[in-house]
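INTERNAL TRANSFER SHEET
From: sequence group
To: structure group
Subject: PLP-dependent aminotransferase family protein

Please process the attached sequence and return the structure record in the designated field. Keep the field labels unchanged so the import script can parse them.
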Amino acid sequence: MVRRTVQMNEELAGRTRVEIVMGTIRQRIAGRSLTPGARLPSVRGLAASMKLSTSTVVDAYERLVAEGAILSRPGSGFYVANQAAPFALAEAGPKLDRAVDPFWISRQSLEADVSDLKPGCGWLPPAWLPGEGMRRALRTLARAEGAALADYGSPLGLPPLRQMISRRMGERGIEASPDQILLADSGTQAIDLLCRFLLEPGDTVLVDDPCYFNFHALLRAHRAKIVGVPYTPSGPDLELFAQTLAEHRPRLYITNSAIHNPTGATLSPVTAHRVLKLADQFDLTIIEDDIFADFEITPAPRLAAFDGLERVIHIGSFSKTLSASARCGFVAAKPEWVEGLTDLKIATSFGGGRMAAEAVLNALSDGGYRKHMETLRQRLSRAMTEVSARLKNLGITPWLEPQAGMFLWCRLPDGIDAADVARAALEKRIVLAPGNAFSLSQSATNFMRFNVSQTLDARVYEVLGDVLRRVAP
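Return from structure group:
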């Protein structure tokens, strides 16, 4: 039986010998031929029966111990761990009864099976990312000195990476020395640190309407009062922006300027200058989230470039263009704020993720990254054209045709609620992003955000067409 199982596993391309052993044991546990508390075959016995080395079996057993599938009893052997209650298949299904809020989209996207389609998610498919570049970066990291693999990072973060970020920001007109840059574990953690540093519960924060839905969730976690201002193709509505500042006196304004999420709009120079004048008038601090910078074909105005990091705090990360697994972001701010943020980072996460920073530095230093981004921008441009045309054929109309990036902000046919469409599509294992999750005023009922890199499969359009016919008034 063991040999038949090994033959079956060996047919799975890419499996290592250790993975074959682990798969064999897992299958025997699942098939109840090894029950909870049962003793596993000895290392030598299993190695002989599977024609493998004893070191391979030991490695497999140790990994199974680490994941909790089996237990090691020194001097006695390895035993099947007491298993949790059997997993009900129904639990794997989409939770259709949950409110379609920011957490709904995030959970459905992050928990989706590899076979599910995710037009509503906010990241590229793995095949669109520089996988080989990351592998080279990790191989370089594997040869690094012990401190890079085992020690805490410095509070500000890896100096060579901060120097590189400073240089890259300079290419976009933002002057920030490496000492003005603090590494974080992600763009989200960067905003979280800033909220901890700048806000007290009850403070008012201004956001675009619509805006990235996790801004809402994060600000609510900090017990902030959130107010929104309508977003236009050139930036926030300036008249309403000024009125909102006068009425609510917000402490912060959080926005994207280069490629806006979810609309894909680009801030105009005129709007940028007016926003900064109003910020100065009303003592407003601005957090400029620039995580989509490398998607740009033609650089857009940056508030931080015009402002010189006086009122504007600039943040970014590498999860969208490099790897979401290598969690690494950054904050660029005036020196006196970086000092306080560094103390706060030590208090909340101590030294930060040095290995991730080392891997990101290696990948960005690789000459292949710039070439990859040139190819990616062209690929996204083609996808934008294709997806826009196919959505229009279904009566789904883009709000604007973005200059770059991955998002299309689209209006559904009249009378159709995007949340109803999203729930119905989820039954077919397709994750969508309905508009009101992005809208504080809940004024985007018939809007939906599409990620063009995740919307190329014909099944998306088949399901959308069917669902639109079913929910049409």
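Handover comment: The first strand starts at residue 70 and ends at 73. Residues 368-393 form the longest helix (26 residues).
Transfer complete.
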